[in-house]
Amino acid sequence: METAFETINHIIRSRRSIFPPDYTDQQIPRDVIETIVANANFAPTHRLTQPWRFTIFREKGLFRLADFLAENYRLHTPPAAFSEGKYETTRTKVLQSSCVMVITMQLHPDKVPEWEELAAVACAVQNMWLTATALNVGAYWSTPGNLEALGEFLNLNSSQKCVGLFYMGYHNAKAKPAIRKPIEEKVTWVEEN
Q1: Helix/strand/coil for 170
Q2: Is-contact 39 128, C-beta < 8 A?
Q3: A Gene Ontology MF term for this entry (predicted)?
Q4: Domain assignment present for 90
Q5: Which of 28, 173, 39 is nearest to 100 (CA)?
Q6: Does residue 107 fall inside a structural domain?
Q7: Count of domains forming the chain
Q8: Across residues 179-186, what is the average pLDDT?
Q9: Is residue 135 one of the residues assigned to a domain?
């Protein structure tokens, strides 16, 4: 029987970005998505500000997001640089997903600096990613250049900020080894005065 340590070690080390072209047509049930989001809620948060917020697009809602992203690309790309292929890809990757979450953060400038809120949101996303991995759901966090426009699309106020999109779908992607430099190159030990 696998211990809790062996299980979490395996999940952390096997988590990967899995992109919409690898997603299947199988829909992620709402209760599975709710479980993934519920685990985000247990991320560490300074002063318990819990800044993470998620707007979840699924089913017919995906078309609304896909159309917005594609049209935003068309509106903000000079005609000479516009690519019909990129326009279609922008729509397609949303529609290939079972759901797409817009990740936002609620700022509390009177309590903590913005970077701490972003760190808490990143921890929440990592909790979702690890949960998705454990449930065999592929996911990836995208940070497109139109985050401000996404904020306007969602009617965010001045104390809220969009920090990306979290694409999810069941998949058939083959496991890939992690590409990481040795941890010894990233650690300094101080064991004496």
Answers
A1: strand
A2: yes
A3: oxidoreductase activity
A4: yes
A5: 28
A6: yes
A7: 1
A8: 96
A9: yes
Percent helix / strand / coil, the chain, rounded to 5:
45, 20, 40
Question: Residue 58 pairs with which residues in a beta bridge?
Answer: 99
CA distance readout (Å), 54 to 9, 19, 106, 153, 166: 27, 19, 11, 14, 9
Q: Tokens at residue 76, please?
A: 């903000």
Closest residue by Cα to residue 114 from 166, 54, 167, 158: 158
Residue 192 lies in a domain: no
Q: What is the pLDDT of residues 117-154, one digit of tens each?
A: 999 999 999 999 999 999 999 999 999 989 999 999 99
2 falls in which pLDDT band (50, 70, 90)?
confident
- Which residue has tokens 């690519």? 83
Q: How far apart are the C-alpha atoms of 176 and 174, rounded to whole Å?
A: 6
Q: Which helix (H) or strand (E) holds 166?
A: strand 160-170
